[in-house]
Amino acid sequence: MARKIAFINYKGGVGKTSLIVNTAAAFVKAGKRVLLCDFDTQSNASIWLLKLDRWNKINSSGEGAVYSIFEPGKSHIKDLIIRDVIEGKSGERLLPGLDLLPTAFNLVDLENEYTGDPKRPPYLVFQEQLALVEPNYDFILFDCPPNILRASQCGIFAANEICVPANPDALSLIGFTLLVEKLQKFHMLSASFRRASMGPPAQVHSIVFNAIKTGVDIEVPKMRMQLRLNQFRAAKRVAANAKILDAQIRDAMVVRRAVTLGLPVVLISQDAADPSQDNVVNDYRRMTLELLQQA
Ligand SMILES: Nc1ncnc2c1ncn2[C@@H]1O[C@H](COP(=O)(O)OP(=O)(O)O)[C@@H](O)[C@H]1O
Ligand SMILES: [Mg+2]
Description:
The chain is of the alpha/beta class and 295 residues long. Helix content is 40%, strand content 12%.
């Protein structure tokens, strides 16, 4: 079975998409097969990995984006997945092993106009289809918006674990607390749709501090987060082995540049292949190694 991880925090702008794209690339570099599912209507991960021209074709036609699976008989996940998504200028595959289930702006219709069969909520439709492609992957990662509305629910219902990206500030801590509360409610609501083969509902397994500026001491916000995590662990509201990862991601200009270039940082940085370098590429590498050990 693939490990399925939803990246979510109730606070926006913490660096979820940057983290998921670069973590996915680091997993691929470690020899893993990865599917990234974009469930954020803003489509940032899809635009990043496809670059604007390819993504625009999907967005303007509405064909080929994940929303199609919710229109009965229209599309199946297996036909929407874009294999080896990252391409160079002449269409060469730059990172074989990283696949994308893209989204477009029409995903917002799932929250408003969608009137599907209430006996088959969107998250069930998604989970059933995902199960058919799951054997192709070691990791399936879900980029979720900062809420637990229908799109997010798809990732959370299918996931086995949750990774919470956080910044060293009070709002990230509030976002984490709110997330744990909302998760509990969603798991209760969706319990009757779970099959035993899916395993238990996803709990928070990891918290990762992101965009840490040089010289900024994060001990106090980290300690506050740890205290909250300890309380949730004692109350069994997060996974028994839930932890703040030792690896943390520094603030680096190359992460911002990466979006414009349509590449993960590992394909930009000159010394990316050298694991002894002290750089952001190795922050992501350390994070993936820690996640691999945590399994
Ligand atoms: N490690 C980092 N270093 C520098 N900038 C970062 C880093 N992580 C994220 N950012 C920047 O922060 C902003 C928000 O990141 P993004 O990944 O879009 O967050 P989210 O998906 O949570 O909304 C973006 O401009 C992104 O380039
Ligand atoms: Mg995002």
